Amino acid sequence: MKLLLAACFMLSIAACSGPRLPGPNTAEVRYDAKGRAVQVMVSGLQPASDAALVSGQGLRYPASAISLLSGPHVLYNPPPSVSLGIGGFGFSGCCSGFGSGLSVGLPVGRPTPAEVSDQYVASALIPVPADYATNWASYHLQVSVGNQFITLAAPAPSA
Hints:
Elements: H1 2-15, E1 27-32, E2 37-44, E3 48-54, E4 60-62, E5 66-70, E6 73-77, E7 81-91, E8 97-107, E9 112-117, E10 120-127, H2 132-135, E11 140-145, E12 148-153
Antiparallel strand pairs: 1-2, 2-10, 3-4, 3-11, 5-10, 6-9, 7-8, 11-12
C-alpha cells in the first residue's frame, strides 16, 4: 500500500512538471504527425529570430511565427518564516459556540536562488509540404539565432 501511494505521488509530481525544455545552447527537432509539421525548439544566449524548412532544391518553407517560451531569469525560494498563532473556542449556553483566532507570520532571512538561467528558449512549428513523407531525407532546417545560422537535419516522418 505504501509503495502504491509513493508511486501515485511521484506520478502526480511528474505530471505537474510542464513541458520539457531543451538543455542550454542546444536545438531539438521533432516531427508532429498529428499536425503534419516539424517542431523546432532552440535554447541559446540570444533568441531565435527565424526558422525555415529547406528542400533539396532550395525551396524555403518558413515558420509562421516563433514563440518565446522562456527568457533569462532568476527564480527564488521563499525565505523561511516563523509564525505565531493564538486561538480560542468557547460555549455559551445550550448548543451554541463562538471562536476567534490571531496569527502573525514573519520572514526570517532572505530568499535564496532556486534557478538561474541565461538562456532564451524559442519554439517554431513549420507545416511540411506534400512530398515531405517521401523526400524527408533531402530536407534540412535553418534557424537564425542572433547573427548566426544553425543547420539541423530534418526529422523522419512517423505515423
